[in-house]
Amino acid sequence: MKPLKDILAGIGLLETRGDLSVQVRSIQFDSRKVEAGDLFVAVKGTHVDGHQYIAKAIQLGAVAVVCEDVPENFPSGVVLVKIENTQINFGKMAAAFYNNPSTNLKVVGVTGTNGKTTIASLLYKTFCLLGYKVGLISTIKYYVGEDEFHATHTTPDALQIQELMAKMVDAGCEYCFMEVSSHAIDQDRISGIDFDGGIFTNLTHDHLDYHKTFAEYLKAKKKFFDQLPSTAFALTNADDKNGMVMLQNTKAAKQTYSLRSLANFHCKVLEKHFDGMLLSIDGQEVWTHFTGVFNASNLMAVMGATLLLGVDRDEILRILSELRPVSGRFEILRSPEGKYAVVDYAHTPDAIQNVLSGIAEIRTGNEQVITVVGAGGDRDKTKRPEMAQEAVRLSDKVILTSDNPRSEEPEQILADMEAGIEAHQKHKVLSIVNRKEAIKTACMLAKPGDIILVAGKGHEDYQEIKGVKYHFDDKEVINEIFGNN
Ligand SMILES: CC(=O)N[C@H]1[C@@H](OP(=O)(O)OP(=O)(O)OC[C@H]2O[C@@H](n3ccc(=O)[nH]c3=O)[C@H](O)[C@@H]2O)O[C@H](CO)[C@@H](O)[C@@H]1O[C@H](C)C(=O)N[C@@H](C)C(=O)N[C@H](CCC(=O)O)C(=O)O
Ligand SMILES: Nc1ncnc2c1ncn2[C@@H]1O[C@H](COP(=O)(O)OP(=O)(O)OP(=O)(O)O)[C@@H](O)[C@H]1O
Ligand SMILES: N[C@H](CCC[C@H](N)C(=O)O)C(=O)O
Ligand SMILES: [Mg+2]
C-alpha cells in the first residue's frame, strides 16, 4: 500500500479531485488486471485508448484514476488526477510505487538491432562469475540472482520492469543488465529507470512494420541515449555507421568500441575456428569460445562496459576466455557421422549475412553450407525478400520454411521470401512449409563435414501458428534427426 501522493511525486498535475492521500493497493494500466483498492492509469496505446476502460476499472474497484482526458460523469467517490502525458509518467509512477529500485542498482541497458541478448546475457554471466548477485531482463528469460522468470517481452512494460527491479533489490542484487528494444523506448517502458550506462550495437533493417521508416527507427534508438544522465556512460559501436550518431546529444560519458578503428575498447581477430576465436586485446592474446566476427564486437562491448563499471582488467580478460555462447546464438551441434548444424537466432537480413559470413570464415575445404530459414508472420514484411536474398547469396543450398507464421498464411510468407530470389538462383532453393520436414531434408542433403544453418528461432521452444503455440525446439529436432541423445 502507498499513498497516491507519493506515487505522483515530481509529476506535474493539471487537475485533481478527491483526497490524494488515499492508499493505493497496486498500480495498473490494464483494466483487466484491476482489483479493489488499485490506481488505474489510462494510457493511449497503439491499438486502443486506455481511457475507454476507465469505467470498467472503477467497476472492478479502482480507488483512483490518472488520465489525460477526464471522462464525463466521473464518479465523485473516486480520486481523479489529470496529467499531460500518462505514457511517459506511468514508468515514473511505477518506479515510485516500488520505491525507485533502479537507484539502488547499477543498471546498464543494451540497444540495437542485433546483439542485445548476447551482450546483456554475457554481462550477467560476467558479473555472476565475479561473485555478484545480478539481475537480467532479456528476450530469453528474466533473472533475479539465480531465480528464473518467464520473459514475455524483450523489454517488458514499465510495471513489470519496476517490479522485477524491486525483486532484484530485495534479493541483494547490485547490478541489472537489460535489453532495451526500440518498441520499449518508443512506448516509454523505460521511463523511471535510473541508468548507469547504455550500449549501442548496430542498426540494420528490422521492425519497419512498427517504426515505418528507418529514420524513425533510428530516432527511437537515439532517444535512449539522449535521455541518459551525465553520471552514466554511453558506449557505442564505432564500426556501425550510426554508432556515433547515437552519441550526438547525450549528456553521458561517450565511449567507443571497435574492431576496425581506434577506440576506447579495441581488439583484433587473429584466428577463427569452429570452436572459437583468438583475439588480440591491446597486444594480449585471448582465446574465446565464440565464432563470427560479430561476436568479437559483442565481446568488446562486454569488456568495455565491465571496465567502465570498475572491474579490474586482468579479471575481465580471464572471464572473456570462460564465457560460452548464449542459448540459440551460434550454437553448434554435430551428428555421429560428422555433419554440423548451427542453430542461430538470425532473423534479420544483416544477422543472416553475419552468421553465414561467420560460417564462411571457418570453412576449411569445400564443405557445403545448407541454410534453413523462415520469417515471422505479423512482423516487418519488407525484410522477407532481403533475408532470402542473403541466405541464397551465401549458401550452397537454401530451404525456405516457416518461422512463427502467427496469424498469417505460411505459404504467403514463403512467397514473400521467394520474391527476393533471382531466376538464376532458383535451382539452389527449395520451399518446405513444415519446419521439421525442412530441417530433415537439410540433414538428408548434408554429407559429413557439411554445415547446416538453422536460422531464426534460436532459443525459442515453440512455433506460433494461428494463435496456438506448439512445442518446437530447433535443437531438439536436430538432435533427434542426428540420432544424438
Ligand atoms: C505493438 C506493441 O508493442 N504493443 C505493446 C503495447 O500495446 P498497445 O499499445 O497495443 O496496447 P493497446 O492494446 O493499444 O492498449 C492501450 C492501453 O489500453 C489498456 N487496455 C486495453 C484493453 C482493455 O481491455 N483494457 C485496458 O486497460 C492497455 O493495457 C493499454 O494500457 O503495450 C503493451 C504493454 O506494454 C505490450 O504488451 C504490447 O506488446 C505487444 C503484445 C507486442 O507484441 N509487442 C512486440 C512487438 C514488442 O514489444 N517487441 C519488442 C522486441 C522487439 C525486438 O525484437 O527488438 C519487445 O520489447 O518485446
Ligand atoms: N553484433 C552483432 N551484429 C550483427 N549480428 C549479430 C550480432 N550479435 C548477434 N548477431 C546475430 O543476431 C542474432 C540475434 O542476436 P541477439 O539475440 O543477441 O540479438 P537481439 O538484439 O537480442 O535480438 P532481438 O531484438 O530479437 O531480441 C544472433 O543469433 C546472430 O545471428
Ligand atoms: N523479437 C523479435 C523476434 C523474432 C524471432 C522470429 N523467430 C519471429 O518470430 O519472427 C520479434 O518479435 O520480431
Ligand atoms: Mg534480444
UniProtKB/TrEMBL annotation:
Pfam families: Mur_ligase, Mur_ligase_C, Mur_ligase_M
PTM field: Carboxylation is probably crucial for Mg(2+) binding and, consequently, for the gamma-phosphate positioning of ATP.
Segments carrying motif Meso-diaminopimelate recognition motif: 403-406
Gene3D superfamilies hit by this protein: Mur ligase, C-terminal domain (3.90.190.20), Mur-like, catalytic domain (3.40.1190.10), MurE/MurF, N-terminal domain (3.40.1390.10)
InterPro entries in the cross-refs: Mur-like_cat_sf, Mur_ligase_C, Mur_ligase_C_dom_sf, Mur_ligase_cen, Mur_ligase_N, MurE/MurF_N, UDP-N-AcMur-Glu-dNH2Pim_ligase
Superkingdom classification of source: Bacteria
Transmembrane listed as a keyword: no
Catalytic reaction list: UDP-N-acetyl-alpha-D-muramoyl-L-alanyl-D-glutamate + meso-2,6-diaminopimelate + ATP = UDP-N-acetyl-alpha-D-muramoyl-L-alanyl-gamma-D-glutamyl-meso-2,6-diaminopimelate + ADP + phosphate + H(+)
Listed pathway(s): Cell wall biogenesis; peptidoglycan biosynthesis
Residues reported in the UniProt entry to bind UDP-N-acetyl-alpha-D-muramoyl-L-alanyl-D-glutamate: 31, 154-155, 181, 187, 189
Domain Mur ligase central, first and last residues per copy: 110-305
Annotated Mur ligase C-terminal domain residues: 328-458
Single GO MF descriptor: UDP-N-acetylmuramoylalanyl-D-glutamate-2,6-diaminopimelate ligase activity
Subcellular localization: Cytoplasm
NCBIfam families: murE (TIGR01085), PRK00139.1-4 (NF001126)
Family of the protein in this entry: Belongs to the MurCDEF family. MurE subfamily.
HAMAP family, A to Z: MurE
Protein's recorded name: UDP-N-acetylmuramoyl-L-alanyl-D-glutamate--2,6-diaminopimelate ligase
